[in-house]
Amino acid sequence: MEAREADDDLPQLGSLAQSARIKELNNARNMMFLAAVLLVVMAIIEFATLRNQASQVIRQNPNQFGPNADLKQVEDIIAFLGALLAGGILVLAGVFVAFAFLVKKFPVPITIIGLCLYILFNLVLAVLNPVTILQGWIFKLIITIGLVKGIQSAFVYQKEKRFEDLERGYE
Amino acid sequence: MSDATDQPDGRDAIQRAEDVRPRPQVAPPPLREAIQPPIAAKPKAPVRGERDAADEAIHVGKVASQEILAPRRVNRDLIGQTLRERRGFMFGAAIWTLLGMVLVCIAAIIANVHVALAAVGPVAVALMLVLLRRRPFVCHVELDGLVFDRLKLTLPLVAIEEVIAGGAKKEAFLICHADGFISVPSALSIPWQAFREYLKDNLQPQLFTPRLPARLQKYFDRNVALFGVGAMHVFWARDHLRPARPPGRTGLAVCMGLVVASVLWYTVGINQGRDFRPWLGAGAGVGILSFLIGLLFYLRAFPRTPRLKNWQRSALVLGPGGMALEQGELVGELRWEEVRKIANRTRGASFTLDSGGTQPCVRLDVTGASIMVLDVYHRPLFFIHDLIESLYCEADR
Fold first, then answer.
1. Per-residue pLDDT reduced to its tens digit, A15-38
2. Chain B interface includes A157 (CB < 8 A)
3. Domain of residue B153, residue span
4. Fewer CB within 10 A of the terminal residue: chain A, N end or C end?
5. Is A26 on the interface with B (CB under 8 A)?
6. Chain B partners of A15 at a C-beta cutoff of 8 Å?
7. From CA B238, how far away is CA B83, in angstroms rounded?
8. Where are the domains of chain A?
9. Is residue B191 located within the same domain as residue B98?
10. Which among B3, B338, B354 has the least Cβ separation from residue A4?
11. Sheet holding B361-366, edge to edge
C-alpha cells in the first residue's frame, strides 16, 4: 500500500504528442525571434545609410525635382520618410518579440497574425523596392516555413488542450 | 513493481537473451524460455529514494550484479582465442600508389622533374589511406569475459544481455549489454556464427531492472500490471555514443594526403627558381582547398553527441498500449492510435528547423507534430524501430 501511495506521489506523465506540439510552437517562437533580429538589423542599416540613400535618389533622378527645387530640403524629406520606414520596421520587430513571448498562451491567433504580418511586410517592401524579394531569401523561407508549421501545430495543440481542460473539469 | 499483488510471476521479471530481428511477436520467443534460470529473485520494488536517484540520472544498479547467480557456462570452445577482423584489400590505396608509380615511370622516361613532383600527390594520398585505416576489430575471449582492443573495453560474460542480428551489411551481430552494444563484423578470423553460438551458450540470466526516471517508472508499473513484464520493453541512454554519421575516413585521408603533397609543392615553388614557380600556386591552391574539404570530412567523422539537453537521462518505454518517452524537451506518453506514420531515418535530414531532425532517428508522425526518437539508447535504432513498428501493427490489428 505504501508503495502504491509513493506511486501516486510521482509526477504525472502528460501527452507526448502535446509535448511534441509544444516543441513545434517553440520552433515558431524561435522563428519570430529570428524575424525580429533580422528586422532590427535591417532598421539599423536603414538608419545608418539614410543620408546616403537620399542623396543617391536625388543623383539618380536629377530631372524629377525641377530646376528650382531645394535639393537639400528634398534630401531631408526623403531621409525623414526613410527614418519613418526604419522606425516602422523597429516597431514590427517589437511586435514579433511580443508575439514570441505570447505564442504559447494564444498559439492559434499569434501564429496566424505573425505569419500574415511577416508576409505583408515583405510584400510592402517588394512593392517599394522589388530587389528586396531576393534579399535574404533563405531566411525568409525558413521563417515562413517555421510559422506555417507552427500554425498547423497550434490548431491541434489548442484543440487537445481544450479537451484536456474539459476532462479535468469533469474530474 | 510497487505492489506485489499486481505483479506477474517473478520468473517473468527476467530479461532473456534472444537472436531475432525484428521481433515477430510482442510475446517472448521460445529461445528466451530456453535460458530461463531455475530460480529467479524477484526484483524488489524501487523505493522512493531510488526513483529520485533515477530521476537525477543516477542509474539504479543492476540487480544481476548484486545477486549471486551461478554462471551457466556450457561452451568453452573459444576461451583463450583472439578473434580478429579479416579486412579486405585496400583497393583505394593500391590505385593511388599505381597512379603515383605510373607518373614516376613517365617522369623517368621523359626525364621531366615536374611529372615526378606531380607523383608526390597520389603517393601521399595512398600513404594517408594506409595510415588512417580504421583499426580492426579484435576480441580476446577470456574465461569470464571478452576484451575488445579497439574499444578498450572488458565485458564480463555475465554482463551480456542478448545477442541480436546486425543492421548493416558488414555487421554480423550485436553484443548487447546494459550500457550499450558492440558491433561484431561478419569477416572474422573464425566463422562469426561460431562466435555467436559461443556467446549464446554462455549467456547468463539477467534480472530486469529498468533504469527509468520516476515519471516513466510510474507508466512502466501501470503497464506491467496490465500486460506483464514480458510485453514491456525499456530503453535507456547508453554510456557512449557512436558517431552519428559515417566516419568518412577515406575522404579525410585523401585531403590530408593532398595537404602533405601541397606543402612539398609550395616549398619547391618558393625555393627552386623560376621554372618551378607554378608549383607555388598549385601548392597553395590545392593545399587550401584540401584543407577546407578535409575540415568538413573531419567534422563529419567526429563523434557528435546529440544536441539534446541531458541526453544521458533519456529513457523510452514501449508496450502493447503505447509508449512513454523522456528525451530532452519531449516528455510524455503516447497511445499507438495517435501515431499516423512511422519512419526509420537512418541518415537524418540534411536540414530541418529542429536540430533533432538532422540526426538519425525513428520518426513518429502525430497530428500537428513529429516525435523523433534519437539514437541515444542502449539498443540500436533499427532494433527500436522494428519493435515500435511491430507493436504499432499489433495494436492496429
1. 999 999 999 999 999 999 999 999
2. yes
3. 82-87+134-201
4. C
5. yes
6. 332-334
7. 25
8. 17-170
9. no
10. B3
11. B339-345, B361-366, B369-374
Edge to edge, the sheet with strand B322-327 lists B233-236, B315-318, B322-327, B330-335
Same structural domain for residues B215 and B350?
Answer: yes
Kindly report, residue by residue over B105-138, the tens digit of the pLDDT.
Answer: 999 999 899 999 999 999 999 999 999 888 888 9
Question: Do both B348 and B378 map to the same domain?
Answer: yes
Could you tell me the CATH number of the domain that includes residue B330?
2.30.29.30
Is the residue at B145 inside a domain?
Answer: yes
B292 touches chain A (CB under 8 A): no
Residue B190 lies in a domain: yes
B102 has pLDDT over 70: yes
Q: Counting every residue, how long is chain B?
A: 397
Query: Which B-chain residues 255-284 have CB contacts (< 8 A) with chain A?
Result: none
- Residue B357: pLDDT over 90: no
DSSP string, B208-272: ------HHHHHHHHHHHHHH-GGG-EEEEB-SSPPPSS---HHHHHHHHHHHHHHHHHHHHHHHS
Q: Which residue has the higher pLDDT, B22 or B283?
A: B283
Polymer length of chain A: 171
In this complex, the residue of A3, A4, A157 whose CB is nearest that of residue B368 is A157
Grid coordinates 520552433 are at which residue? A27
Residue B332 is nearest to which of A13, A146, A155, comparing CB atoms? Answer: A13
Position B19 in a domain = no
CB contacts < 8 A, A to B, total: 91
- Determine the Cα–Cα distance for residues A53 and B348; give it in Å rounded to an integer: 46
On the 0-12 / 13-18 / 19+ scale of CB atoms within 10 A, B305 is exposed
User: Same domain for B181 and B324?
Assistant: no
Total structural domains within chain B: 3
CA gap A30, B338 in Å, rounded: 27
Model confidence pLDDT, tens digit, residues A110-131: 999 999 999 999 999 899 888 8
Residue B162 sits in a domain of what CATH number? 2.30.29
**Same domain, yes or no, for B234 and B323?**
yes
Instruction: Give a yes or no: residue B281 inside a domain.
Output: yes
Contact A13 B331 (CB under 8 A): yes
Same-domain check for residues B194 and B230: no
pTM of the model: 0.70
Nearest CB neighbour to A15, from listed B2, B48, B333: B333
Chain A residue numbers with beta carbons less than 8 Å from the beta carbon of B213 are none
Residues B128 and B172 both lie in one domain: no
For chain A, give the mean pLDDT: 86
Sheet holding B153-156, edge to edge: B82-84, B138-141, B145-148, B153-156
In contact, B385 and B342? CB cutoff 8 Å: yes
Q: Do A31 and B353 touch (CB under 8 A)?
A: yes
pLDDT of residue B389: 92
Beta-carbon separation of B330 and A23 below 8 A: yes
